[in-house]
Design goal:
Layout (H helix, E strand, L loop, with lengths): L1 H11 L6 H17 L7 E2 L2 E2 L1 H13 L17 H6 L18 H18 L10 H38 L5
Antiparallel strand pairs: 1-2
Helix pairs in contact: 1-2, 1-3, 3-5
């Protein structure tokens, strides 16, 4: 299936320098190129759809390949990006199939693909930035923020409990 293959490629992209991974990725790229339709689009389970184009764009950009210029993915002047744009609706959203209305899932995936293409062209890499150091730093920041928030919440609760206790222990003025 085109979608699952493209998703697997995006996941494997950071490990492309590993020779065993490289062989699998190269084989999957040949499969996607062969599966590409004459208009540049893709089918999944027999249906041409925008999400398949989106997933291929995300996969190619994760591997550092521009889907509009990589000759393996240009068919009769069409490519995954031009095919994806064929699903764009006047509202700016995307449809699942060409003659359907706007679809939320199709739109989200298309926006992810467009973001991936912008990231590639700006030198930031693909959509998924899987640098272990960056993820570790991000997770560390999130963990610290979570702990800090929990401590602050606990301190507020303790202060309120202490205030309640001191009010209970004060002799009444009567």
């Amino acid at each position: 299936d085109v979608d699952v293959t493209a998703m697997a490629l995006a996941a494997l992209a950071p490990h492309y320098s590993d020779t065993s991974v490289k062989a699998a990725v190269d084989s999957a790229l040949r499969f996607l190129s062969a599966a590409q339709l004459e208009n540049g689009g893709f089918k999944s389970y027999g249906t041409e759809n925008s999400e398949s184009c989106s997933q291929v764009i995300i996969a190619l950009t994760a591997l550092g390949a521009d889907p509009e210029t990589d000759s393996r993915f240009i068919k009769n002047g069409g490519n995954a990006v031009s095919a994806l744009n064929g699903f764009r609706k006047p509202s700016g959203g995307f449809s699942h199939k060409v003659n359907e209305g706007e679809n939320e899932i199709a739109t989200v995936q298309a926006f992810c693909a467009e973001t991936a293409l912008r990231c590639l062209r700006s030198g930031e890499g693909g959509f998924y930035k899987t640098k272990v150091g960056a993820l570790t730093e991000l997770n560390q920041e999130r963990a610290e923020a979570s702990v800090s928030s929990s401590v602050q919440s606990e301190n507020r609760n303790t202060a309120e409990d202490n205030k309640t206790e001191s009010t209970k222990n004060k002799p009444s003025a009567s």
